């Protein structure tokens, strides 16, 4: 729901949803765009999707309109057209000429072309955002919106996209060329080393042969001398070679495949490149090896080329002449320097262009989204057959009537339209949407209720009571004023930095925590309050308000029972006396206190829920539910658990030792037996006899309710609604989908199930509130364990290191278990108590939310 607290609106009332009305707008087509835009800025109308199908009576007015236009002009034509619209409206109901727009394909609607244009501009903006994200340039915050037409923006975005795409394409080509030249330079260096070492080895071998010639032949003497081989040049074999780079992880497989494919008739030489090389094809850094393959014959060459292509090896030309190698290295180095300068200049130009786009990106993005939302809404409107006006229907709060009329009138003036838009209220039996005006404090509590189910139109809203009861029940389970202070400090950070954090994109968990910051604040405040009542500060009691009322009779009394304690002062003024902590009677005493307190709180909240059902019945003028549902439920619940609550209070006030378990059990088994020491007040025996037969009283009204429902259903029928505000309220309880024939068996079974459900639910719901006692006890005991078994144990060693380790473990255990896990556990249990035990007494939750057409949420929408 919207967060509204401006002076233009009536005072906020969360008990009942805002009165709603179904309105119809007849807008001239020339002012339709501006009217929808102003209504989106207002955010107080929810449009319905209606079709452009108009009644047959409209055809007559089309003909009259055409004739009038020729004779009298456009102004009178529009007046007659509008008059014809109202005349046909009076002859036929709204449903006779309008139907859901779902029968039309999205491509058949009036403004499909404009939506397609907005979608294309949104695609270009997403492209710009991706480019800015890669460049590390965040878009600037949206400034004051300037008047920019959609056509001009479309042209501008197209030019910017074309320029940016061209810059990117040129940059990619230049970078690819640069990476290829960088690889080529490596090949020239590494392959040059191959040939240089081979040439040096050959020259050294020749010198060695020349110096060692003795005229005697040996086994190492060549069979053919140089002179003999020089005689027949046709017998010389000249080897070809291919050089390039291959990925290092593929080099072994590359070598094996070459050997197998050529049957070993190649010579492969590889050298490792020290640093990763940027691959020209992928643009990623890859570890590579420089290779040189020597072969003989064209068939071998073709095989080697195919293998290089299969392994992604980049080939580069190479000349064996040392002079030409040096010349090529010089040329490649010069070209690399030129390309580097050109690439840097291109990056600077691209950065400046993206900077320019980033300055206005948010403004353009908002404008495109706004226009797309406007045209989507215009497609939901029905266009008249004369194509001169649009007909819109939608829900709006009653208080927004004047604001909507002002927005329509302003749109007419700004668009220079000759005819003003028409606003009228329609009467319908359709269930209106539910709209609660909330603020940043109450919105989180309303979301807790809406997560269970949206309230029916003008049904009593549990959110009013949830604001207090939810954090209070949480605190009953979480009561420790030390832990409450920690929660308060954490939520204070979110509240203090509220404006800054609300404009940032947080993670899922952080965003959920920030949204519930005021819920956590009240939870922490109530936890401090209940912690003071329990007198627990990280499980340690303090004499905050006065000294303890008890003193020890002897030194051993602390380990004995409360019999060893003597009351020496006045009763401790607020909360649990610190003397109870650490004694043997602590657990029985606190168990009894918290268990009885849980029952009292549960019965009180369930009674509140039943009382709210009475106010619902009175509001909707349903006397049957008042007499035959509210009264029996109150009698049954309070005859059992209300009576138990009274006994608990009397026992606390009188200090009696009566066994309440025995009293409640034998109230039904033996109601006439004497109570003995279990008697708490005079006349208790007769009171319990009366209470034991109250269950029979419950079923009689429900049988009457069945007969009353039969009479009520038989008398129901549909009729035209009167022109009063009460029509919507009475219509809210009627079925808008038609009337079914009354079946007595169905009503009987329904009421029987409802009766059994309430009777059994009253017992189970009361027992469910004992979770307040169980979780409070668990939280207290866990806190005690961490304090005594970690912190005090580490303190007893008189060792600084052990003490530091103990403090660290204590802090992590307190934060992780008590402040995170226990907080979540208590939150979920408090949620269950509200959804199941409280709201099922009166809350139907079968309504639907009011989602007005507004531009305020466009910034938070995902693409």
From TrEMBL:
Q: Does the keyword Transmembrane helix apply?
A: yes
Q: Superkingdom, according to UniProt?
A: Eukaryota
Q: Where are the transmembrane segments?
A: 59-87, 472-496, 517-534, 627-650, 800-821
Q: Where is this region: Disordered?
A: 202-222
Keyword Membrane included in the entry's annotation: yes
* Membrane association type: Multi-pass membrane protein
Q: Which UniProt keywords apply?
A: Coiled coil, Hydrogen ion transport, Ion transport, Membrane, Transmembrane, Transmembrane helix, Transport
* InterPro entries in UniProt: V-ATPase_116kDa_su, V-type_ATPase_116kDa_su_euka
Coiled-coil residues: 150-177
Q: Where in the cell is it found?
A: Membrane
Its family? Belongs to the V-ATPase 116 kDa subunit family.
Q: What does this protein do?
A: Essential component of the vacuolar proton pump (V-ATPase), a multimeric enzyme that catalyzes the translocation of protons across the membranes. Required for assembly and activity of the V-ATPase.
Q: How is this protein named in the record? A: V-type proton ATPase subunit a
Organism whose genome encodes this protein: Rehmannia glutinosa
* Classification of source organism: Eukaryota, Viridiplantae, Streptophyta, Embryophyta, Tracheophyta
């Amino acid at each position: 729901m919207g967060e509204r607290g401006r002076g233009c609106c009536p005072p906020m009332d969360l008990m009942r949803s805002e009165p709603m009305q179904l309105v119809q707008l007849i807008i001239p087509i020339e002012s339709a765009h501006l009217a929808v835009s102003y209504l989106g800025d207002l955010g107080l109308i929810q449009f319905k999707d209606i079709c452009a199908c108009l009644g047959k009576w409209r055809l007559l007015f089309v003909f009259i309109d055409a004739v009038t236009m020729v004779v009298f002009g456009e102004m009178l034509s529009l007046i007659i057209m509008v008059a014809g619209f109202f005349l046909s409206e009076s002859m036929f109901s709204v449903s006779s000429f309008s139907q859901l727009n779902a029968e039309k394909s999205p491509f058949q609607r009036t403004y499909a072309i404009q939506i397609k244009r907005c979608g294309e501009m949104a695609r270009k903006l997403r492209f710009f955002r991706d480019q800015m994200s890669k460049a590390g340039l965040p878009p600037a915050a949206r400034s004051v919106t300037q008047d920019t037409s959609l056509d001009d923006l479309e042209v501008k975005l197209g030019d910017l996209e074309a320029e940016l795409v061209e810059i990117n394409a040129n940059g990619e080509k230049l970078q690819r060329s640069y990476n290829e030249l960088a690889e080529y330079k490596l090949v020239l260096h590494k392959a040059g080393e191959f040939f240089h070492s081979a040439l040096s080895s050959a020259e050294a071998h020749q010198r060695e042969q020349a110096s060692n010639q003795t005229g005697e032949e040996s086994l190492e003497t060549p069979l053919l001398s140089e002179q003999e081989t020089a005689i027949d040049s046709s017998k010389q074999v000249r080897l070809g070679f291919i050089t390039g780079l291959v990925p290092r992880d593929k080099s072994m497989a590359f070598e094996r495949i070459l050997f197998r494919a050529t049957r070993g008739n190649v010579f492969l030489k590889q050298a490792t490149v020290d640093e990763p090389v940027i691959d020209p094809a992928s643009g990623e850094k890859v570890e590579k090896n420089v290779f040189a393959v020597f072969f003989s014959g064209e068939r071998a060459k073709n095989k080697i080329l195919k293998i290089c292509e299969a392994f992604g090896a980049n080939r580069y030309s190479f000349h064996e002449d040392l002079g030409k190698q040096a010349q090529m290295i010089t040329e490649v180095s010069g070209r690399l320097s030129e390309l580097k300068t050109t690439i840097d200049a291109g990056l600077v130009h691209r950065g400046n262009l993206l900077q320019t786009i980033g300055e206005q990106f948010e403004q353009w993005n908002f404008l495109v989204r706004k226009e797309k939302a406007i045209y989507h809404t215009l497609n939901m409107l029905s266009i008249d057959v004369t194509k001169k006006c649009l007909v819109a229907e939608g829900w709006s709060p009653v208080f927004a009537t004047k604001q909507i009329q002002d927005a329509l009138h302003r749109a007419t003036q700004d668009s220079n339209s000759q005819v003003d838009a028409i606003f009228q209220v329609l009467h319908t039996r359709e269930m209106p949407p539910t709209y609660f005006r909330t603020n940043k404090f109450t919105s989180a509590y309303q979301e807790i209720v809406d997560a269970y189910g949206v309230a029916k139109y003008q049904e009593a809203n549990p959110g009013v009571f949830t604001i207090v009861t939810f954090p209070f029940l949480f605190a009953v389970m979480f009561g420790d004023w030390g832990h409450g202070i920690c929660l308060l400090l954490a939520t204070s950070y979110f509240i203090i930095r509220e404006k800054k954090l609300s404009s940032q994109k947080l993670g899922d968990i952080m965003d959920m925590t920030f949204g519930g910051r005021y819920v956590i604040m009240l939870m922490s405040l109530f936890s401090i309050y209940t912690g003071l009542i329990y007198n627990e500060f990280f499980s340690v009691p303090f004499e905050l308000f006065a000294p303890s009322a008890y003193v020890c009779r002897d030194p051993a009394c602390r380990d004995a029972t409360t019999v060893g304690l003597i009351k020496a002062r006045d009763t401790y003024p607020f909360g649990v006396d610190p003397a109870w902590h650490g004694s043997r009677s602590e657990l029985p005493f606190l168990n009894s206190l918290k268990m009885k307190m849980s029952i009292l709180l549960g019965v009180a909240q369930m009674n509140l829920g039943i009382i709210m059902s009475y106010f619902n019945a009175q509001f909707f003028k349903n006397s049957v539910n008042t007499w035959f549902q509210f009264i029996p439920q109150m009698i049954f619940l309070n005859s059992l658990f209300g009576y138990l609550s009274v006994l608990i209070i009397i026992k606390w006030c009188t200090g009696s030792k009566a066994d309440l378990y025995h009293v409640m059990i034998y109230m039904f088994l033996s109601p006439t037996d004497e109570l003995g020491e279990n008697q708490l007040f005079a006349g208790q025996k007769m009171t319990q006899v009366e209470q034991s037969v109250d269950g029979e009283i419950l079923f009689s009204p429900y049988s009457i309710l069945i007969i009353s429902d039969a009479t009520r259903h038989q008398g129901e029928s549909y009729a035209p609604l009167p022109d009063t505000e009460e029509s919507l309220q009475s219509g809210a309880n009627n079925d808008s989908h038609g009337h079914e024939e009354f079946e007595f068996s169905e009503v009987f079974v329904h009421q029987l199930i409802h009766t059994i459900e309430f009777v059994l639910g009253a017992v189970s719901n009361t027992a469910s509130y004992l979770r307040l006692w169980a979780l409070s006890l668990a939280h207290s005991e866990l806190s005690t364990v961490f304090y005594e078994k970690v912190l005090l144990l580490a303190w007893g060693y008189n060792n600084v290191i052990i003490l530091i380790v103990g403090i660290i473990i204590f802090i992590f255990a307190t934060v992780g278990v008590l402040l995170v896990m226990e907080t979540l556990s208590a939150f979920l249990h408090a949620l269950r108590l509200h959804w199941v035990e409280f709201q099922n007494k009166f809350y139907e939750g079968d309504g639907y939310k009011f989602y007005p057409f507004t531009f305020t949420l466009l910034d938070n929408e995902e693409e």
